[in-house]
Amino acid sequence: MHVSVFDAHCDTISRCWREYEGLDSNSGAVSLDRTAGFERYCQFFALWTADGYTGYPSGGDSVERAYHILLRCFKDQMARNSAKIVQCRTAVEAERANRQGKAAAFLSVEGAELLGCDPAQLDQAAADGVAAINLTWNHANALSGSHCDEQGRGLSPVGREFVSQMENLHILVDVSHLSEAGFWDVAEMARRPFIASHSNAKSVWDHTRNLTDGQINAIIKNQGVIGLNFYEGFVGGSQDLDMVRAHLDHILGLGGEKNAALGGDWDGCDLISDLPAIDGLPRLYEHLLRHGYGETVLQDLFYNNLMRVVR
Hints:
The protein is α/β, with parallel strands linked by helices. Helix content is 38%, strand content 13%.
């Protein structure tokens, strides 16, 4: 089955750096070999690291220096595989790449500490082609609390300045990992669509990384997107395609047909056994077809909705 895919989150670049593997072919969840059968393919590649994680760039360097190390890895992979994939910042660029038979690579930053939580660094990030930034990872930082660290703390004054400057530069604000207080501060001040690149529905599985109905409704109202996450801890329950479908059904039930997307969290966690790698996505597509989902809804979920917010 030829399926078009636009996925909002993978940690493949960090994995390539750590394992000395390439994007073309590797032992991880995302490679160009695995995605070669997709009709069209676009992917957000996150730059991520954190203090205390052995074997990551921050092990002997500052997290800010790690940004440059990982950025070089990303740029190197783009150059090595230029016949198959190209970095993009906009839908126009991505659609052009797809028409040329190439994958479109969007760059994101997971945790603003990689940029020093400094609004002054955003101009350079935009020049580097960064298209989205998670304000926090699991650790609280100078911008906000996270979903599991200082959960009651929202955006600081510098956090508000950071968000405002991101919007000025057309860099998507990504609220996955953010504290709920921080989420509502973003929702209140947002002038452009924001995203939760890899988060599920808390009403289906109660985890701090999943979104409440109120948060889902706010993203829908804002015309943003929610990327379904395939990490077993966030899917929960039976950890199979039926459980993924339960999260999707819940988002659609709240009116999110134009807001649900894919955000697999590939190469960043233990994925559900039914989706161990990105080339399993056609099985999810077929599973949803068998359960009565229409082609229009599925094409929006798998490709169109995320393409809209990068337009």
